[in-house]
Amino acid sequence: LGSATRGSASSGSSSSSSSAPRSDEWEEDGMMAALGGLGIALRHPFKFKSAYKAVPAFTNFVAGYVATLDWILFDERGLERVGSAKLPGRDIVEKHTALPSREFPSDHLLLAADLAWTTPFSSSSSQ
After folding, report:
1. Omega prior to 100 cis, within 30 of 0
2. Residue 94: left if φ>0, alpha if ψ -120 to 50, beta else—which one?
3. pLDDT at 29
4. What is the pLDDT at residue 106?
5. pTM of the full predicted structure?
6. Beta carbons of 4 and 42 less than 8 angstroms apart
7. What are phi and psi of 116, to 5 degrees?
8. CA-to-CA distance for 4 and 113, rounded, in angstroms?
9. So what's the pLDDT on residue 13?
10. How many CB atoms lie within 10 A of CB 77?
11. Angle, CA of 7, 11 and 14, to the nearest 5°
């Protein structure tokens, strides 16, 4: 289904074979790649889109490490985003130093989204 390669994400026109994909190449697909900084591009047959319109500033917030680790992805050929849960800002999370805290019982923020079918779904359809 997929493969991982080093180099350019989609165009193959990278100036260096070991350079990371440009962020605009990932943004063309509607999301920033978490592995982009490592120079790894993931390829698959799906047309994934993030359930969040903007890449969250973070979904994991612990002492010494803040990053976006969690995603809700969907194939936009059969689903559409209806809405997504609002995430707390950095000021709210830092109120208790880091995650987990009294307000957020996990070191990861809760992501939630409403999606709707854009094409009729049939459980008897062959795959």
Report:
1. yes
2. alpha
3. 45
4. 94
5. 0.60
6. yes
7. -130, 145
8. 28
9. 38
10. 10
11. 45
| pLDDT of the residue at 41 | 74
Handedness of CA 35, 36, 42, 47 (dihedral sign): positive
Q: What is the pLDDT of residue 43?
A: 79
Cα–Cα distance for residue pair 50/40, rounded to 1 Å: 19
3-state secondary structure the chain: CCEEEECCCCCCCCCCCCCCCCHHHHHCCCCCCCCHHHCEEEECCCCEEECCCCCCCCCEEECCEEECCCCCEEECCCEEEEEECCCCCHHHHHCCCCCCCCCCCCCECCCCEEEEECCCCCCCCCC
Q: Which residues of the chain have pLDDT under 70?
A: 1-38, 121-127
CA distance 127 to 125: 7
Cα separation of 61 and 39, whole Å?
Answer: 24
Q: Per-residue pLDDT tens for 75-96? A: 999 999 999 999 999 999 999 8
